[in-house]
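Recall that a protein's primary structure is simply its ordered list of amino acids. Everything else, from secondary elements to tertiary packing, is in principle encoded there. The following example makes that idea concrete.
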Amino acid sequence: MKNKLVFLAAILGLLSCLRLFRPGFYSTQDEMHIFRLEQFDKCFHDLQIPCRYVPDAGFGYGYPLFNFYAPAFYFLAEIFHLIGFSFTTSVKIILILIKIGGGVGLFLLSRSLLATALFTFAPYQATNLFVRGAFPELLALNLIPWVFYFFKNKNYPWAAFSLALLFLSHSLTSLAVLILLIPYLFFFVKDYKHQLFTFLTAFGLAAFFLLPAFWEKNLTTMSTMTQDYFNYTNHFTTLHQLFISRSWGYGASLWGPNDDMAFSVGWLQWLIPLITLIVLILTQKNSKPFLFFSFFALFFLFLTHNKSTFIWQTFPFMAYFQFPWRFLGIAVFCLSLASSFLPLRQWLAIIFIILTIVTNFNYFKEDIWYQNYNLPITKVSGEGLKDYWPKYGQNFPTEYIANPLYTKKSNQVTTDLNLTQKTDLLLPVVYFPNMKLFINQQEHPYTIDSHYGQVKTTLNPGSYNLKLIFYNTPIRTIANFISLLALFFLPYLWRLKEK
């Protein structure tokens, strides 16, 4: 019986992404994912593992994208590309698996198909999948049930692995999850020693990304992520948007209440927990897990409203969330779990599941579908450029640079030169520590141009072999070592599981 229900949970996830089973791809607000997968693939073939610096992003100048941008989504998609699928198909396969996996994980955690339907068909899931195109955040959201499931069942090896994968999927979502996960473990699982060791192992596994991303963030223009349009004060929701509105759009989050995209919790997503509360009161049942998840659902929804401004001001780092409505995802997760405590007859549960699908199914579709999806590199290479641009120059590029004189890989730039006069060379790559320039196999000094921050050197007349190589900084090397070391702790966690 359990296997049949798991299968039904997978079917629910499948229903929410049926539109992906077609040739081509679709328009989203974030259109850089296939390009970024291509860049990730270049890192793999260049043996730059883990991938940090990508060669063609930043309008062709390159910059350390994956030193700061969580890589898990692209790593998973790269597996399917290496098997033989195209970049576009690989992305679609991962999106389908995310939706199926999220549904199965929620069912295993809640043992409720109704809760699974509420989570899988929450409007915010459709927003991430078909409107924003926030695929890493979608992955993180659908990993949350697995993290809780493994911790709840004290399956510590998989708890460490799933939590590390969450860290590597979306930094902001994983931080929000910790606000919920830590008190949950403290009140309901109560295996503090082993939980702490599992947390440390998970952090260690993800250290190769987490430590450099934190330690080296001041070397970039990351501060632009909280300015102007991205200031969180521009993106609070209203109660009407959260609980009443059923309007839908494929535009942007705008200042004020008249947005071109939806921030709905979903009618049944909040009505059923409310019904559950009434039933528990009338039957005089005290369900601590229900109260726990209901409280945190309200807390996360409160963070999306402008009345929570004092919290945002108290914790300045929250500005990096940019959009308060990001907390909708984890709020829906909590509401879905709260709904699992509603005692229902089978026929009534089926009715609620059908209603959930019917009332939300129309959200799970794209705006525009392209049979031949092939965005020009001159466009997508500049997406998100200001987020992690090295701050060694005074300006941002606005046009794609193509210099056939140089051969660019993800971890080096090379060329052969025959110069007849003294020449100032401006390499088509933006500096970021730790780069070393070699001329005829000898290390050579260089400067950093103040315009974009390109590597610059001067050579006298002659024949030269030039090679610029990207090396790890000490913090990256240490972080890589910590992640390798964490692998050795997994056998200990397996012994805990056997006990």
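The mean pLDDT is 93. The longest helix spans residues 87-110.
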